[in-house]
Amino acid sequence: MLRPAVALPFLLVVLIWGSTWWVITGQIGTVPASWSVTWRFVLATPAMFAVAAVMGKSLKLGADGHRLAFLVGLTQFCGNYNFVYRAELHLTSGIVALMIALMLVPNAVLARVLLRQPILPRFAGGSAIAIAGIALLLLNESRMAPVGGQVLLGVVFALVATLCASVSNVIQANEVGSRLPMVSLLAWAMLYGALCDAAVAFATAGPPVLPTDAAYWLGTAYLAMIGSVVTFPLYYTLVRQLGAGRAAYNGVAVVVVAMLFSTFLEGYCWSLLAGAGAALATAGLVVALSARKPST
Q1: Would you say residue 67 has pLDDT above 80?
Q2: Which of 44, 104, 239, 269 could form a disulfide with 224 if both were Cys (CB 3.0 to 4.6 A apart)?
């Protein structure tokens, strides 16, 4: 973890993903969420194909590879992001980031079912602590929400987003995914995800919405190029170097950065209840992740 080749990418992903939660808040409201997600991956897809080409990676996946890429695109780059953007209409970005960090819970269950990986007692105990912390944070959020606020709807959207991302994380680690170049798989997955995003946007929001606000497009470009094209290859490389367990400490650190952004830029007000919830959630995540043995 202290080697520059590992520590620097780890810190870079933490800082970028921690900031993207706040940047997303500028992508919703004036533009339908689904079209914002679509524009993000319309920009990210050709850039990811270019990365694969520059790295000299073959873009030929085979039939099994394309089926996997479609499923990753559908769950990660369509389902996950569509529900994340909708969740941020009702919850602060830091709270959504914290809920998404609990993806390790369905990850463990799905990995047990699909990949036959065991669930260790320490992992289960830490997850229970983290869930208790999340409950306190959401209780605080519901108390502070204005009358008529839809905190519960935001929670549901965040949970569905978490499940979508979890499915993507587990299925990409199967036998087919392990023999494909990561950047090539990501390029095709982003393409399929962008096509699914456009279909969802047409079905739910009508014709394309193209805002003229320069700040919106700067935010979209940041999310596409920095928040997607730069970070996904780095993160999955960390997974291969450290093992899925230790690499997932990234999620705990991302939450800290996201909550700081929420505090200083969204005016998130801390209370004793919120502080206790954040402390429990972070402690639970650390305990749960420390039970995961890194791959050798």
Answers
A1: yes
A2: 44
- Which residues 6+ apart lie within 8 Å of 260 measured at CB? 18, 94
| Structure confidence at residue 145 as a pLDDT band (50, 70, 90) | low
Q: Tell me the pTM.
A: 0.82
Question: For 3-43, what is each residue's pLDDT tens digit?
Answer: 677 778 888 888 898 888 888 888 887 899 999 999 999 99
Phi-psi region of 180 (alpha: psi -120 to 50; beta: other; left: phi over 0): beta
Residue 90 lies in a domain: yes
Under 8 Å between Cβ of 130 and 288: yes
Q: What is the average per-residue pLDDT within 210-239? A: 90
Which amino acid is located at 148 in the chain?
G
Residue-level pLDDT at 207? 95
Residue at 83 is within a domain: yes
Number of domains comprising the chain = 1
